[in-house]
Design brief:
8 helices, globular
Length: 175
């Protein structure tokens, strides 16, 4: 039960719709329970479940690619409008930039940058070397910064702090 929030967060890297992410988590847990005899004691359950989730997702993608009529006209793929505050917009920009990354870079960025998984665990989950994980992470960070029109991660942090300060100043002035 303690791993469900981490599984949901990882599932959101694969699925844009929260319901689809929840379905992926549920399928992952069912497969994990059904194959519990294959879990090796002494290894990390979280990594094992992340690997199951990753493989389940890629299997779904292969199946969906064969059975996807009319996908371009699907109303569920259209963007949803939300509040237009600067801080909300910046969050959306970052999210959109992450979604535009190649899947292998996005996956590594989410595992390490968001979920706090180690390089070694990420390498196990993704089935590649630690050096490959580090390269993918570096390319993902650079790609997000480039898509956001930033020169460095420091300028992005400074802009975020300025937006937050402006928000609080405006909010304090309205009292």
């Amino acid at each position: 039960m303690d791993l469900i929030p981490a599984l949901r967060a990882f599932a959101r890297t694969f699925c844009r719709a929260p319901d689809d992410a929840d379905d992926l988590v549920q399928e992952t847990l069912l497969k994990g329970l059904a194959n519990l005899d294959k879990f090796e004691p002494g290894t990390r359950l979280k990594s094992w479940l992340f690997t199951i989730m990753r493989n389940t997702h890629y299997t779904r993608v292969k199946i969906a690619a064969r059975e996807a009529p009319g996908l371009l006209d699907c109303a569920s793929s259209r963007p949803v409008s939300e509040a237009s505050q600067d801080w909300s917009m910046q969050s959306k920009e970052v999210h959109q930039a992450i979604q535009q990354l190649p899947p292998h870079q996005r996956e590594v960025l989410m595992l390490i940058g968001v979920l706090g998984v180690s390089y070694e665990e990420t390498a196990d989950i993704c089935g590649c070397a630690v050096g490959t994980v580090k390269s993918r992470l570096n390319r993902a960070r650079a790609g997000v910064l480039e898509m956001l029109g930033e020169n460095s991660s420091q300028t992005l942090v400074e802009r975020h702090h300025q937006l937050a300060d402006d928000h609080w100043d405006a909010h304090a002035g309205s009292r």
